[in-house]
Specification:
- This protein has seven helices and five strands.
- It has helices at about 10-40, 50-85, 100-110, 125-135, 135-150, 175-190, 220-235; strands spanning about 115-125, 160-165, 165-170, 205-215, 240.
- Strands 2-3-1-4-5 form a five-stranded mixed sheet, with helices on both faces.
- Strand 4, helix 7 (about 220-235) and strand 5 (about 240) form a beta-alpha-beta unit.
- Helix 1 (about 10-40) packs antiparallel against helix 2 (about 50-85), helix 4 packs across helix 5 (about 135-150) and helix 5 (about 135-150) runs antiparallel to helix 6.
């Protein structure tokens, strides 16, 4: 479950106090300079009471206003920051949503490494889970699967929900042999989930298809190849991994 945090972090408060003191200091300097010029021009000269007033007034009047304005500005900035972050997440699982996942993978695919493996994971017979236990329990199963994926993939791997019961994992700068080992770890991790809706044991399993690249490639093309192998894994009986053969 994701949502906006209402409390500002410590770093934000430090920024607020720093900005407030800076603005108050600047206000005091301008006030003192203006007072000195005014008193030297239109009165007998600079005196201590005048200087004290020029220092105290900006602090007493401007300080609270500047502080309030700084809090409002920082709250807005922090909220926008959170909204931008939440826009990249899947609301149910907390993983990257499809658009954010595809964008992140695309950056790797055209970046300096330009080598990696994309795994497309689909929960087997998932419709039967929804039909037997309801969509609430189906959502719980998806959250369990997402959690298992997050714990299983090695960093700096990426994981996202592509839609429905389909997930994606991208393993940057990884060869096929290692990727196959990771895919099998993922498959076993899902099989080990103790999913018991309404106290009834309901084993979960996934089929996994993969594609690799060693040169720049668009996410769409890489996904299409991985999805074809996912279909092959489904045809082979599910609960298995289908990857291209290592050279």
């Amino acid at each position: 479950m994701t949502g906006l945090a209402t409390a500002l972090p410590k770093q934000a408060w430090l920024w607020i106090f720093r900005k407030t003191f800076l603005m108050m200091g600047l206000s005091v300097v301008i006030s003192v300079i203006a007072t000195v010029v005014f008193m030297a021009t239109f009165s007998a000269g600079v005196n201590m009471p005048g200087l004290l007033i020029s220092i105290v007034m900006p602090i007493c009047l401007g300080g609270p206003m500047i502080f309030t304005f700084a809090i409002g500005t920082e709250r807005m900035r922090y909220a926008n920051q959170q909204l931008a972050h939440l826009a990249t997440l899947d609301g149910l699982t907390g993983l990257f949503n499809r658009r954010a996942f595809a964008s992140a993978v695309e950056k790797y695919c055209v970046g300096p490494h330009r080598r990696g493996v994309l795994l497309v994971i689909d929960a087997d017979h998932f419709k039967s889970v929804n039909d037997r236990f309801g969509h609430d329990q189906g959502d719980e199963a998806l959250r369990d699967i997402a959690h298992a994926l997050s714990l299983t993939i090695p960093l700096p791997g990426l994981v996202g929900r592509l839609g429905g019961e389909e997930f994606g994992i991208y393993l940057p700068d990884m060869d096929l042999a290692r990727a196959e080992s990771v895919a099998d770890d993922v498959r076993r991790a899902i099989a080990d989930i103790d999913f018991r809706p309404e106290g009834i044991s309901c084993p979960l399993s996934v089929s996994i298809g993969g594609a690799s690249h060693e040169k720049p490639i668009a996410f769409r093309a890489l996904y299409r190849e991985a999805d074809e192998r996912l279909y092959s894994a489904k045809q082979r009986g599910r609960d298995c991994v289908a990857l291209p053969q290592a050279a």
